[in-house]
Structure formats: structure tokens, C-alpha cells
Write a structure and sequence with these properties.
single chain; about 500 residues; alpha+beta; YerB-like fold; 2 domains; 11-stranded mixed sheet; 5-stranded antiparallel sheet; 8 helices; about 40% helix; rod-shaped
């Protein structure tokens, strides 16, 4: 839907509502979903911090293990170095060196060195040349064997030392990586902990601001002291889908001429930037809506008799005739089904008008865990016949999905209407004093009603004795019926015009 320039004022008003409304008990305009988002983020942060704590503990254990490995590897290197030093020393043993020198001299014919071999020969007492040669060869062979063993061992030790040093280097690199991971994880944990602290603080601040909406029993952060705003909304095929109907606390469905219906959408716990198509008032609206304690009343006008009745009612007129600048035509729709308004704008312009008051609760609310009253029976839904308009509600497990004339009732965002509670209040209709062709719902008196809640139907009696009194819905025992907190649609068919499924 194309937005008219006047909706820009509405967007600005959203941010200024808190300052513009009366400061006595008023609260700043807050997104109702903000608390839920903060609570989800709080839970996410708690999980992430817990996971980081586990990871930091793992890294701490890994770092300690790597440090132990480093210490062991350093000792291993020191021992290998000692082995190399000792082996090298063994290779240079004086006796071995002496024989090696003698062998070197003998093989090279060095007479100075041959004296050493002669000494060895004399000590052995063997003067035979053959035996001397055998002795020399034996000494040479033994010496070479020993040198080979020692050299092989030295090579092995040096390879082991090289491997030990490489392992120590690898361990050091792994240790540095683990320490860097711990550092980064520690910084991330600190940042998340700061965000968690801030998130919890913001949750606490919002909790301090939240209130229970008097008409729905749900949490709201909007101004609880502002008046209710009732908007007459077109409900014929050319007017659908409508805007704002899913944001209304209560929607009354009234029969009008020709067996068609029109909506009276009541906003209080939250508003909507686009509401409509706005249509004309009916004289039955004044009795029906007066139970809201001087609500603002948005409409596209009415005949002379209806306007006179409005002036004598407890409703405060913020309709197009009184506040023309708060309405606009959507050129993408055909008149008269294209007049729209902004709930926030109407609250702003209505703040200084006399006669408004905070609405009183119409319903009592129960905890979702509390049992339904005795006599409640399970139903799949209900069908309602207004003559030229048929309505069906079907329980979908969490709400009552609404359809009209065979099509799902959806808003301009494509979201199907599925209120928590549906009240089928059977009322009589009489001819309006302002227009004999216009039916007027009789909302004062008493009659029967069905309350649809949590997939169950509860048969009750409705009664209302005075215009400024709220409608009572009571069991045969005389006790009021508490309903679940949430959105409410109240259908007003004639008696006998509804069936269960």
C-alpha cells in the first residue's frame, strides 16, 4: 500500500508520544517486541558465554599440557646433548687414540710411531712377523669396529637431537597458537559479558516500565493512561484486506444494512500507523462503545441523526469531520473504501480533548495454566450468519483463525486474524432512529453468549444495565468467566445465527 505524506507525521509521533502525552503515569512509546528480543539475546549471550567458558577451560588444559611437553622435550634435548658429549669423549679415549696412532704409523711406515707398536709386540712376547701382522690386523679391525659403532651412535644421537629440537619447535608453535586462541576467546568473552550486563540492565529498565493492558491482559509498554481509540472500519469485499486490525485489542463486528457487517476496532495497548479503510458511524456505536470510558472515536462521518447522537454521547469525536488533517485517501483504492488514518496521530490530537479517560477492563483474565470453568466443551470452531455475510472461526491450536465469505480474514501484511478469544454475543437489532433502514445492535440488556477459549466453548449470559458500565459475561453460577490474555474479537449476530463445528 502506498503511504500518504501524512503518515510521515505519524512516524514522527511514534517517537514523541511519551513527551506529548500527559506526564502523569505516562510512558514512552516502546516497541512491544523489544523486551522479547532482549530476552532472546540475553539467553543467546548466556549460552555463548557458557560455551566460551568451556572452550577457555579446554585451552587452559591444552596450554598446560603443551608447557609440560616443552619441559619434557627440553630435558630430552639436554640428555641427548650429554650423550653426544660423552660418546664423543669415548671416541677420543687415550688408549684407543694410542692404538690408532700406532696403526696409522705402521700403515704409513712412520718409524717414530713404529716404536709404539714394537713396545706392544714386546709386551706380548711374540717376535714372529706373522703373529705381529695378525696382531696389528686384529688391533686395526677392533679399532675400526669400535669407531664404526661410536660413529653410528653419534649419527643416531645427532638425528635424535635434531628431531627433539624440531618437536620442541612444533610444540612451541602449537603453544603460541593455543595462547592466541585463548587471548581472542578471552576478549570475546569479555565483550559478550559486557553486552550481557547491558542487555540485563535494559531488560530491567523495560520491566520497570511494563504494565498490563486493561483490555487484553497482555504486557504493554505503551501509555496505560491514554484513552481507548475506536475506529470504524469497512468490512465489505472491496475494503479487504484492512489495515491495523491485528493490532487492535478488541474488534466488535456489527451488522449493518443488507446483512453486511462493519468493524469497530478498539486500540489501547498498542497502535498502528495505518488503520482503515475508515467508514461511517452507526447509532448503535454510541451505546456499544460508551463502555470504554470516553474513547476517541474515528469515523468518516455519518448522517445528521448519527452526528447529533454522537454529540450527545460519551464518545469523543476525532473523525474526519473533526480532524480532517489526520486522514488521507489511498489513491490505489477506490472510494469510499480508501480512507485511512494513523492511530498515533489520533492519540496526539486527542490528548487535549475533554471527556476522555482510561478504559476500564471489560474482561477478567486467567493464568494459562488455570483450568477452564466446568461445562466448557471442545469445539473445532463456529459459523456465524449475518445474512449477506458469513463468518467462520477455526481453532488452530493457539488462536481462532477467522474467515469471511469463504476467504481467510487477513490484514494488509497478509497475516490472518486469529484472536486468542472470540465472543459470540447474541443481540437483538432494531431500526436506527437516524435511519429506519439501518439496523442498530441492542447492547444494553442481557442475552446469551459463547466464549471461545483454548479450543473450548463456554456458554454464558451477558448483561449490561448502564451505558457507562462494562458488559458482564457470567456463568450460570453467577461467576464471571476469566479469559486468556490476548486479542479479542466480539461478534454480534442475531440470536440463533451461529452454530458450532
Amino acid at each position: 500500500m502506498r503511504r500518504h505524506p501524512r503518515t510521515l507525521l505519524g512516524a514522527l509521533c511514534v517517537g514523541l508520544i511519551g513527551a506529548l502525552l500527559s506526564t502523569t503515569g505516562a510512558q514512552a512509546q516502546i516497541d512491544p517486541g523489544q523486551l522479547g528480543e532482549l530476552e532472546r539475546r540475553r539467553d543467546e549471550l548466556t549460552i555463548q558465554i557458557s560455551e566460551l567458558d568451556v572452550e577457555l577451560e579446554r585451552l587452559a588444559l591444552a596450554i598446560a599440557d603443551l608447557e609440560d611437553q616443552q619441559a619434557t622435550q627440553r630435558v630430552e634435548i639436554e640428555l641427548l646433548a650429554d650423550d653426544i658429549e660423552w660418546t664423543t669423549f669415548t671416541r677420543q679415549e687415550p688408549a684407543t687414540t694410542r692404538v690408532e696412532i700406532a696403526i696409522f704409523g705402521f700403515t704409513r711406515g712412520d718409524p717414530r710411531q713404529n716404536e709404539m707398536l714394537n713396545e706392544v709386540r714386546t709386551l706380548e712376547g711374540d717376535d714372529e712377523p706373522g703373529r705381529r701382522r695378525a696382531l696389528y690386523e686384529s688391533v686395526i679391525e677392533d679399532t675400526m669396529d669400535r669407531l664404526t659403532v661410536i660413529d653410528t651412535r653419534l649419527i643416531e644421537l645427532r638425528e635424535e637431537l635434531t628431531g627433539a629440537r624440531e618437536r620442541l619447535g612444533a610444540t612451541g608453535s602449537t603453544l603460541l597458537e593455543a595462547e592466541e586462541e585463548r587471548r581472542v576467546a578471552g576478549i570475546l568473552r569479555s565483550d559478550l559479558a559486557d553486552e550481557l550486563t547491558d542487555t540485563v540492565r535494559r531488560i530491567d529498565e523495560l520491566r520497570a516500565l511494563e504494565a498490563r493492558a486493561v483490555l487484553t491482559g497482555t504486557t504493554t509498554f505503551d501509555d496505560p493512561n491514554r484513552p481507548a481509540l475506536a475506529v470504524k472500519i469497512d468490512n465489505v469485499a472491496a475494503a479487504r484486506p484492512q489495515a491495523g486490525i491485528n493490532q487492535a485489542d478488541i474488534v466488535f463486528v456489527e451488522e449493518v444494512e443488507g446483512g453486511l457487517t462493519r468493524l469497530a476496532a478498539v486500540f489501547h495497548s498498542q497502535g498502528a500507523e495505518v488503520v482503515g479503510p475508515v467508514r461511517s458511524m452507526r447509532t448503535g456505536d454510541f451505546d456499544l462503545l460508551s463502555q470504554l470510558n470516553g474513547p476517541l472515536f474515528a469515523n468518516s462521518g455519518g448522517n445528521r441523526g448519527a452526528r447529533a447522537a454522537l454529540a450527545n454521547s460519551t464518545l469523543v469525536d476525532v473523525g474526519v469531520n473533526a480532524q480532517n488533517d489526520s486522514y488521507y485517501r489511498d489513491r490505489e483504492r477506490r472510494a469510499p473504501h480508501n480512507l485511512f488514518t494513523n492511530a498515533f496521530n489520533l492519540w496526539v490530537v486527542g490528548r487535549d480533548l475533554e471527556g476522555t479517560a482510561t478504559p476500564s477492563p471489560i474482561f477478567q483474565f486467567r493464568d494459562p495454566a488455570a483450568p477452564l470453568p466446568a461445562g466448557a466443551r471442545s469445539v473445532g470452531g463456529v459459523s456465524i450468519n449475518y445474512g449477506s455475510t458469513s463468518v467462520e472461526y477455526t481453532w488452530n491450536g493457539s488462536g481462532w483463525a477467522r474467515s469471511q465469505d469463504g476467504d481467510p480474514t487477513v490484514d494488509t501484511d497478509g497475516v490472518q486474524v486469529a484472536p486468542t478469544t472470540v465472543v459470540v454475543q447474541f443481540v437483538d437489532y432494531r431500526a436506527s432512529a437516524a435511519d429506519a433502514a439501518s439496523p442498530e445492535a441492542v447492547s444494553l440488556g442481557e442475552g446469551s453468549a459463547w466464549i471461545l477459549s483454548a479450543g473450548q466453548l463456554i456458554e454464558v449470559t451477558w448483561s449490561r444495565a448502564e451505558l457507562t458500565r462494562q458488559t458482564d459475561y457470567k456463568l450460570a453460577s453467577g461467576n464471571e468467566v476469566p479469559i486468556l490474555p490476548g486479542k479479542i474479537w466480539i461478534e454480534l449476530p442475531r440470536p440463533g445465527r451461529a452454530t458450532t463445528r
